[in-house]
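My current task is to audit a protein record that another person submitted. I need someone to confirm that the C-alpha cell line plausibly describes how this chain folds. Take the sequence as given and treat only the C-alpha cells as open to question. This is what I was given:
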Amino acid sequence: MARTTSLHHLLPRRSARLGAVVVLTLLAGAGAAPTAVAARATRGDAAASQGPASSASPAATVDVATRVAGLLARMTPDDKVGQMVQAERGEATPADVTTYRLGSVLSGGGSGPATNTPASWADMIDGFQRGALATPLGIPILYGVDAVHGNNNVYGSTIFPHNIGLGATRDPALAQRIGRAVAEEVTGAGANWTFAPCLCVARDDRWGRTYESFGETPELVSSMATIVTGFQGTTLGDAPASVLASAKHYLGDGGTAGGVNAGNTQVSESELRAVHLPPFKAAVERGVGSVMVTFSSWNGSKLHSNKYLLTDVLKKEVGFKGFLVSDWAAVDQIDGSPGFTQNEIATAVNAGLDMLMVPQDFKVFIGYLKNAVTSGQIPMSRVDDAVTRILTQKVQAGLFEHPLADRSYTASVGSQEHRDLARQAVRQSQVVLKNTKNVLPLAKNAKLLVAGKNADDLGNQAGGWTISWQGASGRIIPGTSILQGIRNTIGAGGSVTYSKDGSDITSTHTAAVAVVGETPYAESEGDRTSLTLDATDRATLSRLEASGVPLVVLVVSGRPMELPETSSSWAGLVASWLPGSEGQGVADVLFGLQEPTGKLPMTWPRTTSQEPINSGDGKQGAFAYGAGLSYTDPTPTVTPTSTVTPTPTVTPTPTVTPTSTVTPTVTSPVPGSSCSVRYRTDGWSSGFTANVVVTNTASSPLSGWTLRWTFPGDQKITNSWNGVTAQSGSEVSVSNPAWSPTLAPGANATLGFQATFTGTNATPTDFSLNGALCTAS
C-alpha cells in the first residue's frame, strides 16, 4: 500500500493576497511524481482533507466530526498517546515532536527564543510545527503561551491591564475587544493557543493570583467571559487570527483557605457551584475550546484526580465539548510525593484530563502513559475520547490548512491601535476612592511633586507575567510610565518635579502625587500574610504627609492593600491596579481628560485581619465592592455601600467626553421601615445602568430576600447582576443570588442592571423588601 507524505508544511501560509495554496503530495514508490491534490482558495475549502496524509474530498461535504473520526481511525497507539502530551520548548526539540508525535508544545513564563522579537518567536514555533508536519499523519501541534494581559512573553507587545483592572471597568465589550487585539498579537508571533482567561473568583486578597481575577463575585467574572469570544471568534476559527482560549483554573482556585495558592478550597458543593462554577458555564456557552484544571484541592481532593467535577459536572452536566489540560506538572502532585507515577497518570486521565502538561521528563511520562493504555489501566475508549476532543479543536482552528505563523499579523504586535485600546482600558480601570475638596482632577498649571517607587517603573506597573514568569522592576518593556504620562499632560504654567522618596517636597508645590504599591510577583510567590504597604512606601508617604501639601495617592497593585491610619489625611486616593504599558491612561484620569468610571471589583479591607472579606458577608471594609467616584458625583467621600456600573460604550480614541449623569437623590421616609434603598443611575440617550443598594435596617436577619419596585416609565432591563431578576411590564423583582442568601441586620446587598428607555428615565420610589416598604434615598 502506497504511503503518502505531505509537503504542505514547506509552502508559505496563505495570505489574503494569494488566491490559492497548492498542496503537493508525493506518492511513495518508484517513479512517483508530485500531484496536486487541492487548490485551496478559502479556509472552508481547505478543510477538504482529513489531514495531510488523506486524499482530498470536497470541503463542504466533510464536517469536523467526520474528519476527526477518519483521522482517529488511522492513528496508532503511539500517535494517540503523543497527542495527549504537551512538552515545554526548553526540554523538547522539533525532532522530538516528530519522534514522539507530540500534540502540543508550550512556552512557560519567560521561555522563548534567544532573540526576543515577534519574528524570532514565529521562526521558533514554525520549527516545532514543521516537526509535527513531518510525522506520518502530519497532525499540527497546538503551541501554548500564557498571554494573560497581552502577548506578554514577547518584547514589544502591548501590555494591557491585568484582569483585576479590567474587572474595574465593568465593560464586557471592552474585554472582548482586548481579547481580539491579543489574539492578533499572539498570531503574529506564531502561537495559536493562549492559557487565558483566568475565570477564577478571588475570595481572599492574600492570594498571589488575585490580580488574575476579574473580581470577587461570580456575576462580574462571568460577564467578562466575553474575552473568550475575543480570542476565538464567535466559534473557533471563524475569524482571522483566531486563537484557542483556555478558561482556567477549574475549579475553585480563588477560594482556597487563607488565600494559599494551590491550596484547599473548603466549601460546600452548593457554594462551589454558586460562586466558582458560573464563570466556566459562561465560557462554555461561548464555545471555549479548552479548560485548564487547577492545582488546588476541593475539601482535600486534588482537582486533577476528581472525576466527579471534571467529567460528571463539566463535561456531562455543563456540556463542555473541548478538552481539559492539566496545569504545569500538576499530575505529579496527585499522590503528594515528588516524581510522577503511572498510577498518577492513569488517575488523571481516567478522571477526565485529555492533555497533560509535562514540562520535564516528557519522554518518561509518555512511556508511563503508553504502559497504562496498553495494560488496560486507561481504557482505549477514554484515550479515543481525549484525542477526539484535541483533534476537534485543531480542525476547527484550521491548523491543518494553515499550520505556520501568519506573519501578516506580525506588524500588529505593539501597534498604535492596540496601544490606544490599552490606554482606554487603563482609563476605565482607574477607581477614585477619595477626592477631598475636589483635589482631582489636577489642574494643568499645577506645581506637582511626584514621588514613589512605582511612579517611573514600567515593570512595577505591568506586574507579574511580563516578559518573565515573575515579572521584574525596571524598564523591561517599551511603554509610558505614570510619571511620563503626567509630564506629557502638564500644561503651560505647570511643572512636575520627580523625587522618588519624596524628600524634595516644598510648600511651593500645589499638590503631591505618590505612586506606591506592590512590586511584581506571580502565583505562590505573591501569597501574603500581610497586605500593608512596605517600609519604603510608608517612609515616602510620611515625608509627603508632613509637608502639609495636598496629597493624592495612587496604589499600583494587584489587589486591595491595607492603608495606613494616616490615610485619613490624604486628599485623594486612586486604585490604579496594574495598568501595563500605557501609563498615559492614568494621567488622563488624574487631569480630567477622562471622567473616572471605574468601580472596585473587590471589597477593600480596612485591615488584613478582615480577610477573606467579600460583598454580602456583613463585614465593613474600608471601601465596599463596587465603590468608585466620578468627578461629577456630589458625594465627596465613598460611602460603605457598593455600586456596580458597567460602562455602556467603549471608545478607543485618546480622549473621551464623559456622558455620565447622576440621578438626583429621592427621599421617601417610611415610618417604621425595616429597610432602605439607594438607587443611582448612569445614563445615555437611550439607556442606563443602575446601582441599587438595599440595607436591612431591622434587628433580625433575612434568610432569603426579594426586592420589588415599579418603573414609572417604559424602562426595560436587558442585563442584570448580583441577583435573580424578573420583569413583567413595569413590575420588577430581584431575589438574592444563591451565593449570598442572607442579609444580616445592618448589612447591605448591591445589585445592578442595564436597561433601555424612551422619553424620561424617572426614578422608582416604591421599593419593598419581602413585602415591607423601604425608605428610598
Observations:
- Residues 1-61, 636-669 have pLDDT under 50 and may be disordered.
